[in-house]
Give the backbone structure.
Amino acid sequence: MFKIADIEFDHVPLLLAPMEGVTDPPFRHACKEQGADIVYSEFISSDGLIRDAVKSVRKLGFVEGERPFGVQIFGNSVGPMVEAARYAERYNPDIIDINFGCPVKKVASKGAGSGIMNDIPKMVAITEAVVKAVKKPVTVKTRLGYDSEHKEIVDIAERLQDVGIQALTIHGRLRTTKWGEPADWTLIGEVKNNPRMTIPIIGNGDVVDGPSAKYFLDNFGVDGLMIGRATYGNPWIFREIKHYLKTGEILPAPTVEERVRVAKAHLSDSLNYKKDEFYAVMEMRKHWGLYFKGFINLFFKEIFRISPRKKDDSVLSSILPSFLKKEYTLFQRCCLLHLKGNCRHAVKFCNGLILFQKIAWIFLALYLLSSLLFAFNVLPVDVVSWLSLAMILLFAVPLFAINAILRRPLIGRFKGFSFEKYHNTKNHESIF
């Protein structure tokens, strides 16, 4: 039995980790739909909250369908943390969680997040003050310790429990541990098996699928699992883990149709939440890429297979907001052309721009070489002058013109994305 105040589960709950820039309401809705038991806000600065900063206050918002819902706050001083907790309580969340785990430098360097683990007495004092200041259950998320010389989580857990927290989430890394290193669950297990501990212990770190979840539960006996980065583009992970824990079977990966459905619902929620079409879609870009990660050319091939031969904007207008028709990037331009059914034109457009860039760079190299030769009196000045003029007329002017049309710099738009590899005419023609 998992219990935090009035929140009870007769199974091992799966919690969505609070993540800045990720766990906004639209993403939380997607995760909740797929089986997340408890969700949290993005972490909120206590200083920003007590100053009524719009960005901070906005993070407190949630809907009834998200319950149980926790608000997570962070700070480095008792007074602001108490005020922030009281402020958050007015929004009636189910849990107030204190972030003692964020490793980000700009947070930790100020003695907040995991940076406070250098000052355990202060950490305990803040926690005690917050517990006494609010009626809502207070929980804490923290790490194993600050560095390898200070793995003090067993003692910290006892002290935090003694001042009244009702659950403790432990991330199996240190403040100084790099993200690429595996999480160490040994100390999490020690905390859970400590006979003095009576509150729920939630493990966090490297839970990426059903087998890993079962391994951590079987070997370390935690009361719940918190999942963070593994949810990026994968809200289905909650459904998959629950199914595996119940049956021992791994669910098939979500279909393209399911991914499209969730992505469309996410976009719709984002538009309703952010109230700004441009900003909402800009935010959704990162999610779209993650939802369809690993699907080669999926954006062009599968997502918008709906009436690809019909040259209308119905798909475009229903999925992508109208601003895309104006704010062109190279990628968006190709998408627009494709969505209208002009896949051949999109391919030619991309390949033509790529070829133009290559020629421009070659010509620039020749120009630089000629300038060097002129410096050593190998070439006359007339040759260099003519090359300069040709450079301006043939490449500089067209580049400026293209930049004006696309409203984005052309050079540097590709960054690992190969149109040549993924967008050839034969492949496009074969799917229609």
